[in-house]
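Ligand: nicotinamide-adenine-dinucleotide. Inputs:
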Amino acid sequence: MKSIEAAQNGDTFNADGTVMEAPRTVKKQIQFADQKQEFNKRPTKIGRRSLSRSISQSSTDSYSSAASYTDSSDDETSPRDKQQKNSKASSDFCIKNIKQADFGRREIEIAEQEMPALMALRKRAQGEKPLAGAKIVGCTHITAQTAVLMETLAALGAQCRWAACNIYSTQNEVAAALAENDDGGDLTHWIYKKYPNMFKKIKGIVEESVTGVHRLYQLSKAGKLCVPAMNVNDSVTKQKFDNLYCCRESILDGLKRTTDVMFGGKQVVVCGYGEVGKGCCAALKAMGSIVYVTEIDPICALQACMDGFRLVKLNEVIRQVDVVITCTGNKNVVTREHLDRMKNGCIVCNMGHSNTEIDVASLRTPELTWERVRSQVDHVIWPDGKRIVLLAEGRLLNLSCSTVPTFVLSITATTQALAMIELYNAPEGRYKQDVYLLPKKMDEYVASLHLPTFDAHLTELSDEQAKYLGLNKNGPFKPNYYRY
Ligand SMILES: NC(=O)c1ccc[n+]([C@@H]2O[C@H](COP(=O)([O-])OP(=O)(O)OC[C@H]3O[C@@H](n4cnc5c(N)ncnc54)[C@H](O)[C@@H]3O)[C@@H](O)[C@H]2O)c1
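Predicted complex:
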């Protein structure tokens, strides 16, 4: 890998994605500095071997981070205005402070412990470089966990350049550690907007963010998608583990770090009983909270009932609840009218999409006073003295206020790495200019790489059983429509 550019001058980019192959042109805001020559050479196919083949299977049917542990208030100079060199005298990076590299390296090493599948991929790829010659540009959160992904891609033979998609989630010390390793970056979706000709040299796109995937489908529908793209957001391992288990683990962490409140016996309403809502409800129920659920979909609503939650309309409980959590991916689920009716001290937060689920803008009116009581916690005070506790200004609570379990990120990062290997090594014609889901077998492979961590012993089908079920003994074990 070459260098990293964390976009720390205030730019934020929506897409968490990666693009195979390197652009040749320099653009204004994305610096390909002095050492870009090597990166910009044409790739060779030498060195791609059996690892890719063993996991590749054609299929056409087929979000995360904790904020930096480093105080960012110490130096407000934009990284673009700083001249920095790493220990090898390279300046081919744009990061906050190269002196934090050792600290960042320790963070990466800690993350490696909880990302067994990526480490297994590195081990299995010894001598085999399924990404040899691949040039990968990525735009993701820059965290210890994504650093493990980048370094895995490099270990598999790729040359990588990377950019941060969000300054608030960037772990500056990790960016420094990557830059010290002379590793690094650029970002992706700008290519389409600013340099569409580069698509001639790009082999494929791997996209994990909801917004990015949505944009890819729009492009495809309009006939404007010029290269194959993998939608890893909708792979089973992403949906189940990132949405359900990640939120189950991180909801209480986010709530407790910000409020120090005891949740046993508290009345909580969770809006939306999809994967994220199910995770939040499970954690709060286990903590002894009284949990109500709102839903628009009768199937998810029935699931909530069968799981022992009271299904209500938000209006019915809004006056009595202690906590309101949105998990719908929708907008204006909690309106100003709801906020007006909440009781004093009600905690309001969002685990779903961006900051649209709670109508935070409606609280910016002259009669209401905002008081910042601690980082990411605002008291919004009504003229009669009632105050509500708004967390992270309605942005994602767990991404803003807690850490996200590395093991979960290991699953999604492995999915990304395998998607890149698949796209890069697929024979000509397997993938057209369209959006694809990951082959089922690859999803299963990602899961199987994580099983040894639990000392889990998987049962193997006998020949007779495989025949009876009409399955290949090595998978895939479920049809693509199976819902898990
Ligand atoms: N916080 C995180 O770490 C995290 C992780 C993954 C996904 N997400 C985001 O969380 C959101 C939900 O993801 P998901 O996987 O649970 O999606 P999902 O589609 O499985 O669930 C959303 C649920 O909300 C319901 N819903 C929609 N509008 C509603 C309304 N007005 N009132 C009540 N219920 C309503 C839907 O019927 C659906 O069942 C998405 O925006 C996703 O991007 C957050």
